């Protein structure tokens, strides 16, 4: 099954320091995104801005917080060609590589379920967690490694077009339909052609009504109230593949300055394509002619392209500062985190609430003001998590799957 998997087209060069710094920055942003901004913005217009940017868009649109997951998935894709080339150079056979990829995929899927079940009374079988989403698509992306840019681009385009067709050709529900009768509607319903991407009235939601009820659960699955779904792993594979193509490009022979310029230019192009597909990203839009609205929660093709544009621009900034200008000392905190991304992701899911509660208890015995200073506690949480990772970094403990 894997005997025809091609060898890497070029030998594995030294890994760019900017990749680890960028990955660490993304993971720190994940942990740092819960700041109580109202405490230091004093109810100003900045509070409204930060509250919006540090939350997921209710449905349509794209915030800074919405860019964390695609950044994480993209950098997974960037790392795959480096890892694959390194293992091939050590003599791993194609069968060994395939089994390793399969094992990694299964572990990621189940780890995502485990983390989602953290505060549940029984195993909570859903697959919208970013770790599970990566696992579901990982083995499919693996088979594109070493196939070349044209094949990878065709596969990526096929994924996005096929996913778009699934929604575009799906019959619209009857007029007045709502998946949550009597509930509060805190998102914008699309009109016209864009109605194919309404929350709870799309093929992703209907698929989960069947699929998730195959697993044992306390109550029958209806709809995810936030609109997430299992099938978003399909278009998110395109995000990982954009990362794979970028990783292959970075392993090429072009001077680093030219690589940086091409990555930045591609980022701008992707932003323009994403906005064009959405057609209504600016305020005052009526969604009458949108080809594919930008919606992170169902990972529409326009979101996959638009978010990748921002990711590419940010990556080019890190390459410029770290690899071209050579300024690395400032990024050391990010290097520490970037060497153990899975560790901090698990700690964020499992430990943050306990650490906050512990600080609150001890501060409360000193001063109620300290105990209720959420910003102070959140800073201490970040320092605590970083300290654990620094201890691991100093002892060269790097958790990999």
Q: How many strand elements?
A: 0
Number of domains: 1
Biggest β-sheet strands, sense, barrel? none
Helix content: 55-70%
CA-based gyration radius: 22 Å
Terminal Cα span = 23 Å
**How much is the average pLDDT?**
87
The run of helices and strands is: HHHHHHHHHHHHHHHH
Which runs of at least 5 residues are low in confidence (pLDDT < 50)? none
Q: Any idea what the shape is?
A: globular
Strand content: under 5%
Assign the structural class, choosing from mainly alpha, mainly beta, alpha/beta, alpha+beta, or little secondary structure: mainly alpha
The total of helices stands at: 16
Report what the structure shows.
59% of the residues lie in helices and 0% in strands. It has one domain. The two termini are 23 Å apart. Helix 4 (68-89) packs across helix 6 and helix 10 runs antiparallel to helix 11 (301-324). It is globular and about 60 Å long. It is mainly α and 401 residues long. The model has no long low-confidence stretch (mean pLDDT 87).
Q: Quick recap of the structure?
A:
It is built from 16 helices and no strands. It is an all-alpha fold.
List keywords for this structure.
401 residues
Please write out the topology:
Layout: H1 17-32, H2 38-41, H3 45-53, H4 68-89, H5 94-116, H6 130-142, H7 149-168, H8 203-211, H9 233-250, H10 256-278, H11 301-324, H12 332-338, H13 341-350, H14 352-364, H15 368-371, H16 374-394
